[in-house]
Amino acid sequence: MAAKSQPNIPKAKSLDGVTNDRTASQGQWGRACCALTGPVVDIVTGHARLSDIWAKTPPITRKAAQLYTLWVTFQVLLYTSLPDFCHKFLPGYVGGIQEGAVTPAGVVNKYQINGLQAWLLTHLLWFANAHLLSWFSPTIIFDNWIPLLWCANILGYAVSTFAMVKGYFFPTSARDCKFTGNFFYNYMMGIEFNPRIGKWFDFKLFFNGRPGIVAWTLINLSFAAKQRELHGHVTNAMVLVNVLQAIYVIDFFWNETWYLKTIDICHDHFGWYLGWGDCVWLPYLYTLQGLYLVYHPVQLSTPHAVGVLLLGLVGYYIFRVANHQKDLFRRTDGRCLIWGRKPKVIECSYTSADGQRHHSKLLVSGFWGVARHFNYVGDLMGSLAYCLACGGSHLLPYFYIIYMAILLTHRCLRDEHRCASKYGRDWERYTAAVPYRLLPGIF
Ligand code: NDP
Fold first, then answer.
1. 316: CA distance to ligand 1 center in Å?
2. Is residue 261 a contact partner of residue 111, using CB atoms and an 8 Å limit?
C-alpha cells in the first residue's frame, strides 16, 4: 500500500515561482504550518518565540473581509429568499417546508429546507466561474486562507455573543431557554434552543449548513485548483479526498430534513460550541487533508487508492443505512421492514418537562441491533479513509480521525446518559438487548 509523497521536486520550485506575492507568502506560511513539529521544537528549545510565529501569520485583509462578507451575504440570500424548488423535480428528495422535532417545551418549529438548492447553485456558480466567467481564480480560498480565518472567527464570536445576548433579552422561545447559573457555560453551550430572527432564519440550520458545510466542498475544490497550479496536476489522493467528502456533503443536503431530527437540532442549545464550531472549526479543520495535499502532493499506488475508496464507500454505506433505518422506523412508527423483516422493538415511555407522559419506540434490528451507535462507526470509517488518502508520512491529516473518534465517543456517552435518564428501565432493556455501544465485543 505504498503512497508516494512528492514534497520536494515541484513544490519548492512552484511555490517560489508563484507570481502573486500574496500567494507566495501564504505558501511560506502553509509550509511552516505543515511542519507542525518544527515550530513547537523551536519554541521548546528556545530557538523561537510565540511572537515569531505570530509575526509570520498573515493578517486580516480588506480583500478577505470583502470576500467573506459577500460569501455570507450570498448564503443568507439563498437561505432566506429562495424557497426550495428541488423537491418539485427531484424524485425522493424531501425539501420545502418541513417540521422539526418537538422541543422540550412542546414547540414544533417549521423549517424551509433548501440546502440542496443552495449547494447546487453555489457550486454551479463556482464551475461557471472556473470554466466561463473567470470573475475570480478558483484558488481564491486557498490564496486568502489565513485572512479568511480571521473573518470566520469574527463571525463565529459575533454570532455566539449575539445568541447569548438574545437568549437573555429577546429569546425566540423563552420556555426552551436553559440557564445554568454559570455564565461561561451559558456562553459555550448556549441558552436558546432554536434561536431565530423572524419566522424563518434559524441559526442552527443556517450556520451548520451554509458557512459550514457548503463551504467544505468549495474549499476542497480550491485546494485541488491550487495543487494543479503549483504542481501541474491533481493527484489521485486529492481526487479521493474531494470525492469522498463531497459524497458526505451531498448526503447531508439530500437528507437535510433528517438533520432536523439529529442531536444538534433536537438536544443541543445554540452557543459558542455550535456558532463558532460551524463558522471556524468545521471549514478549517474538516478540510485539513486537502490543505495538506496542496503542500504534499501524494500520488497513491492503485491498491492503496482502491483500498481508501472502498473503506470510504463502505463507511458511507453503513453511516447512511444506519441513519436511514432509524429515520424510517421512527417515521413509520415501526411499521416498516428492516433488512427485509419486521423490526424488533422495545416499547418505551418518558415524561416531558410539562409532566406529560409520552410513548416512544427503540429499534433493536438492523444496525441498531449490532451496536447502539453503529452509525458513528460508519462515520469513523469514512473519516479514516480521508486521512489514509494522505499517506503515512505526517500526522497532520490524521488529526481528523483523532478528533472524530473523540467527538463521537463523547457524543455517544453524552447521548446514552440522556437516553438513560429519559427512558429509565426501558433504556436498560435496550442496553441488555444490544450490549455494545460502537463495536460488538469491544466497546
Ligand atoms: P443519532 O442519530 O444516533 O441519534 C441519537 C438519538 O436517537 C438518541 O438520542 C435517541 O433519541 C434516538 N435513538 C437512540 N437509539 C435508538 C434506537 N435504537 N431506536 C430509535 N431511536 C434511537 O445521533 P446524532 O444526531 O449524533 O448523529 C446523526 C449522524 O450525524 C451520525 O451518523 C453521526 O455520525 C453524524 N454526525 C457527524 C458529525 C460530524 O461532525 N461529521 C457530528 C455529529 C454527528 P430519542 O430521544 O428520540 O429517543
1. 15
2. no
Residues in the chain: 443
How far apart, in whole angstroms, are the C-alpha atoms of residue 359 and residue 304? 49
The helix/strand/coil state of 367 is: helix
By DSSP bridging, strand 96-102 and strand 345-351 are: unpaired
- Low-confidence stretches of the chain (pLDDT beneath 70): 1-38
Q: What pTM does this model have?
A: 0.88
CA separation, residue 402 to residues 238, 263, 396 (Å): 20, 21, 10
Atom of ligand 1 nearest to the CA of 415: 9
At residue 19, the pLDDT reads 31
Among protein residues, the one whose CA lies closest to atom 22 of ligand 1? 362
Q: Which atom of ligand 1 is nearest to the CA of 329?
A: 20
Helix (H, G, I), strand (E, B) or coil at 193: coil
Q: Whose CA is nearest to atom 21 of ligand 1?
A: 362
Mutation choice for ligand 1 from 213, 251, 258, 263, CB with most ligand atoms inside 8 A: 263
Rounded Cα gap, residues 47 and 32, in angstroms: 15
Q: Are 374 and 367 within 8 A, CB to CB?
A: yes
pLDDT tens column, 109-145: 999 999 999 999 999 999 999 999 999 999 999 999 9
Nearest-CA residue for atom 30 of ligand 1: 262
Residue 353: the pLDDT is 73
Distance 262 CA to ligand 1 centre (A): 6
CB 262 within 8 A of CB 330: no
Q: Which atom of ligand 1 is nearest to the CA of 326?
A: 20
Q: What whole-number distance in Å separates Cα of residue 138 and Cα of residue 132?
A: 12
The reported pLDDT for the residue numbered 15 is 31
Residue 27 CA to residue 23 CA, distance in Å, equals 6
Closest Cα to atom 20 of ligand 1: 362
